[in-house]
Amino acid sequence: MPQHPNLLLIMTDQQSADALSGAGNPYLRAPAMDRLAAEGVRFERAYCAQPLCVPSRVAMMTGRMPHELGATHNVRSYPGCAPILGSVLSATGYDCAWFGKWHLAIPTEDAATHGFAAEAGLSWNPFDHRDALVPRSCAEFLQQRRARPFFVVASFRNPHDICQWARREPLPQGDIPALPPPGRYPPLPGNFEVPENEPELLRMVRHSYTRLHPTLDWTPDDWRQYRWAYCRLVEKVDALVGRTLDALRESGHEDDTLVFFTSDHGDGGGSHRWNQKQALYEQPCRIPFIARWTGATKGGAVDSRHLVSSGLDLVPTICDYAGAPPPPGLRGRSLRPLIEGRAPEAWRDSLAVETEFANMGERSDGWMGRMIVTDRYKYIVYSQGERREQLFDLREDPGETRNLVASADRQAVVADHRRRLAEWIAETSDAFVMPDGR
Question: Beta-strand (E) ranges in 326-362?
Answer without folding.
Answer: 350-359
